[in-house]
Specification:
By secondary structure, this protein is α/β, with parallel strands linked by helices. The chain has helices at about 5-10, 10-30, 35-50, 175, 180-185, 205-220, 255-265, 300-310, 315-325, 375-390, 410-415, 440-455, and strands at about 50-55, 65-70, 75-80, 90-95, 100-110, 115-120, 135-140, 150-155, 190-195, 230-235, 240, 245-250, 275-280, 325-330, 335, 355-360, 365, 395, 405, 420-425, 425, 435-440. Strand 2 and strand 3 (about 75-80) form a beta hairpin. The structure holds manganese (II) ion (2 copies).
């Protein structure tokens, strides 16, 4: 059903399903603030649904449910189909990293009697949005003996939170006259972490008090920050939004909303599919999909090779056939029309809250630069699957032709010569500490992804 409002058509039962599915989604989003946390959540859900770790699997048959993890930051789950993987898969691919403030490798400084963590922002942020908002710190610290400690501070209501201060309005005459991009400098996004001086210390006594706490709580020395990966993200749970509770406010909808709906589409599938149903969750999309855990990593291809080997097919050619025969939805969020800023969109080719799953034939910038321009025959295939299953869907571009642009992982998988189409949930305030989605679109994306897997 193209471009129709989900709420207007929804039966009482469907309404209930929309709200109850979003309760599960809010719980996931609250616990999946980083790619590591999202991977952990995905593993727990997969195991609960009877998926077995690939490392423990010796052979495969249709209907088998398998998952695997890469370096604690990528996740893949598959239901083996009736056909060999060599004949292609149905893949849902989403990313689980989101914009945030990364803690630097030498983070601790003391200025004016306050201790700070220096940060380096990750992904595209509007810096002014990240001051005076409560932040939590998550991540890992690896020690030279190979052991590591997990860090999570700021989510429990009894935990302390952190933050970046902003200049008081009374003294902001100079700051307020600067353009938004310049008003807050990246190097000034320092997180305040303490103010008590250590007794008997003359120099950097506040910093020393903090290092004492780190030693006491985590058994870590200051130098252990060198092998840490700590990130600051907005603190607190995802919540209902609006008097009618029709929306979800939270950090990291981009792209955990597509990750979760894609994951559930595979985990909840009861039928043995014709083609293997796959969900793959990757890292580093917000910084270019590069490296061992980004979509450009050989990991996905290697995993396909492992699965084919379990079918008794060990040739490189089988891997190439499998990739080229695959159909994929690149599950990533889309920019919903914001009526307060409507001038950046062309209304006939934009997506709206409440109208369901969004297909972007292309993304990119300027003359579609960097986009995966999906093939029309694949769009027809997807439309048919949506209409046969009465899925509400809409289409979109990223704003007006010359307004800006962006990209997804679509083109990377497209490089394997598979059919790929961008498909996701419309988001308002994308990349802000608090993003919004419509509950109707979240549920419709889940249903649409399910329909695609069996198409
Ligand atoms: Mn995204
Ligand atoms: Mn993004």
């Amino acid at each position: 059903m193209y471009a129709k409002n989900v709420w207007k058509d929804a039966s009482k039962e469907k309404n209930e399903s929309i709200f109850s599915f979003n309760e599960d989604y809010k719980a996931f989003l609250t616990n999946a603030k980083t790619e590591r946390m999202a991977t952990k959540e995905a593993v727990a859900l997969a195991e609960k649904n009877g998926f077995k770790n690939l490392a423990d699997v010796k052979s495969v048959k249709p209907g088998d449910k398998i998952y695997t993890v890469n370096k604690d930051k990528n996740f893949l789950a598959v239901i083996i189909g009736r056909k060999s993987i060599e004949e292609g898969m149905r893949v849902l691919g989403a990313h689980i990293d989101s914009p945030r403030l990364d803690i630097k490798q030498n983070p601790l400084t003391e200025k004016g009697g306050l201790a700070y963590f220096e940060t380096h922002y990750y992904g595209g942020i509007k810096k002014y949005q990240w001051v005076t908002t409560p932040l939590a710190i998550h991540g890992v610290v690896y020690k030279k003996d190979g052991s590591h400690v997990d860090v999570a501070i700021g989510e429990d209501p009894t935990d302390p939170v952190f933050g970046v201060t902003d200049l008081l309005i009374h003294l902001s005459a100079d700051q307020m006259s600067k353009p938004l991009a310049k008003a807050i400098e990246g190097e000034d996004l320092d997180i305040n972490v303490g103010s008590i001086p250590a007794k008997g210390e003359k120099e950097e006594s506040v910093k020393k008090f903090v290092t004492g706490l780190l030693k006491e709580k985590y058994g870590m020395e200051e130098e252990d920050f060198l092998s840490s990966e700590l990130v600051a993200v907005p603190a607190g749970p995802a919540r209902d939004y609006g008097l009618d509770r029709s929306m979800v406010a939270g950090y990291g909808h981009d792209d955990k909303v597509c990750a979760y709906t894609s994951l559930r589409a595979v985990l909840d599938q009861k039928d043995v599919p014709e083609f293997a149903s796959v969900v793959v969750l990757v890292d580093k999309e917000e910084v270019g999909s590069i490296g061992a855990t980004g979509a450009q990593s050989a990991w996905f291809e290697n995993t396909v090779a492992e699965l084919l080997a379990l079918e008794g097919k060990e040739s490189n050619l089988a891997v190439r056939h499998a990739m080229a025969n695959t159909k994929m939805l690149s599950s990533d969020v889309s920019c919903a029309v914001d009526p307060l800023y409507a001038s950046v969109n062309e209304p006939h080719n934009s997506c709206y809250f409440g109208k369901g799953l969004v297909f972007n034939k292309y993304t990119g910038a300027r003359g579609k630069s960097g986009c995966n321009d999906a093939m029309p025959e694949f769009l027809a295939f997807v439309r048919k699957a949506m209409d046969e299953n009465e899925i509400h869907y809409q289409t979109s571009e990223i704003g007006k032709v010359d307004a800006g642009g962006g990209g997804t992982i679509a083109y990377i998988l497209g490089n394997y010569n598979m059919y790929v189409l961008d498909a996701g949930v419309p988001v308002l305030s994308m990349h802000a500490p608090m993003e919004l989605v419509s509950k109707a679109d979240v549920y419709e994306a889940y249903l649409g992804y399910k329909a695609f897997l069996l198409a």
